[in-house]
UniProtKB/TrEMBL annotation:
Pathway note: Polyol metabolism; glycerol degradation
Role, per record: ADP-binding subunit of the dihydroxyacetone kinase, which is responsible for the phosphoenolpyruvate (PEP)-dependent phosphorylation of dihydroxyacetone. DhaL-ADP is converted to DhaL-ATP via a phosphoryl group transfer from DhaM and transmits it to dihydroxyacetone binds to DhaK.
Descriptive protein name: phosphoenolpyruvate--glycerone phosphotransferase
Gene giving rise to this polypeptide: dhaL
Domain (DhaL): residue spans on this chain: 7-206
Organism taxonomic ancestry: Bacteria, Bacillati, Bacillota, Clostridia, Eubacteriales
Length: 215
């Protein structure tokens, strides 16, 4: 059985925060094609503020992601704060009492985050949002687990599904958000939220693999 220990694993969240920081300019450039061009700036602001509240504290993975979610909900403007705050808060609630986090625990947490997001935003697959990254990522992850793959291999599939989902938003017409005003002109561009979601999921998968244990 492969697992990660929940306790003292806040570095997983810190790696996610660092990845967003490093890609913030890229995310704003993507957003500039169909939106306000501030997605990367807003994400980096909220994630960096959460980092200040995590560093130096001996936190679990779930507690660190709780801080990230609460920070985004309370302290970042725009639509991404509530969206990612809701997802991370559901992940925290799903994992807070789990000592040894296994693949099925992560799958449940991601599914709960997705369902909460759909309830909040009213978006669905094909609307050219971060849901178009989350859904295929979760589906490929679930399929890998059901097929008997290891936790590590299933995380590779999660990353692959996220990448494919993000890439597919380039062929979609935006139906929700500021980009929706462009209608057909939004086709041919990646969605910024789908791209940041891909970065988060792929970084999380890599970070979890980096502290994997087995018994």
């Amino acid at each position: 059985m492969e697992y990660i220990v929940n306790a003292r694993n806040s570095d997983i969240v810190l790696q996610i925060i660092q990845a967003i920081h490093e890609k913030s300019q890229y995310l704003s450039e993507i957003d500039g094609a169909t939106g306000d061009g501030d997605h990367g700036v807003n994400m980096d602001k909220g994630f960096s503020l959460a980092k200040e509240r995590i560093v130096g504290n001996d936190l679990s993975f779930s507690d660190a992601i709780k801080i990230l979610g609460r920070t985004l909900l309370m302290d970042i403007g725009g639509s991404m704060g509530p969206i990612y705050g809701t997802i991370f808060n559901e992940i925290w609630k799903s994992l807070k009492d789990v000592e040894k986090i296994q693949d099925t625990n992560v799958l449940t947490a991601l599914n709960n985050g997705l369902m909460a997001l759909i309830d909040l935003a009213g978006a669905k697959p094909g609307d050219k949002t971060l849901i178009d990254t989350m859904v295929p990522a979760i589906q490929t992850f679930a399929s890998a687990i059901e097929s008997g793959n290891s936790f590590s291999k299933s995380l590779d599939e999660l990353s692959r599904g996220a990448e494919e989902g993000k890439a597919n938003t380039k062929n979609m017409m935006a139906k929700i958000g500021r980009a929706a005003r462009l209608q057909e002109r939004s086709i041919g561009f990646l969605d910024a939220g789908a791209t940041s979601c891909c970065i988060i999921l792929q970084t999380m998968a890599s970070a979890i693999k980096g502290c994997m244990q087995s018994e």
